[in-house]
Design goal:
The chain is built from eight helices and 15 strands.
Length: about 290
Amino acid sequence: MWVHVNGRLVDESEARVSVFDRGFLYGDGIFETMRSIGGVIFRLDRHLARLARSSARIGLDRMPAPDRLGAGLRELLDRNGIAEARIRITVTRGIGQPGDYTGAAGDPTVVMSASEFRPLDAATRQRGVTVTLSSVRQVPGTVLDPALKSISRLSAVLARREAVARGAFEAILLDAAGFLTEGTVSNLFLVDQGRIRTPPAPGVGLPGVTREAVLEIAAGAGLKTTAEPLPATALATADEAFLTNTSWEVLPVTRVDEHPVGSGHPGPVTGRLAESYGDLMRRECGGA
């Protein structure tokens, strides 16, 4: 595979980042994950806008312009010959020195990679997934802005490992007051009597691009949606629940540990939203 490193396409075996890169030393960086459908990146402009907002929030200077990043991504897909791809842009503050917490010596490090997109199997979607309420709490907004898509992911890694050890697919994080926030790599939605509820983002979680699209679809379908604080008990008592992210799209949640959500099967509202989201992706990316 070919990857894009600081403006150059190189074979992955030759890709190099300094051991003194601040991303490696301190997790000092940001990222975006995207999908291409038929060679077209879904909502690329929204992803690049969020990347720009993240860079501004952490004071990361000398970011490449969005058109340069977009051109690099198209070059990356063309060179690898991939039409259905999972894509990641990683940007760090650049090369620093151990013990220097404040600055980098030069430009940011920009790495872009793509791989064949492998969707979840149909059986998982038909069955729905199990989540667990993690003992790892959400990083407070006073510590790290929840609107940042930061490469500092250790708390999410630990929560996800805990979920896997419990036999769950995803971990749901609570804030210090015990309210639902988000998954380790996903946004959370509940459905109660046809009303769609989700924790506020960026209030307590990342404002996901897929989350935004689902809210648009729901509003267009005349469904009532609210972004509001949700106690942990709301998940267990919901009629339906689902997760959203770039790779999972709209994924039904049917169990919280050993307890069923609603009927214990994917619900009708989740199903409609999942179908509509797939239609939206294909339409915006030029498909049928």
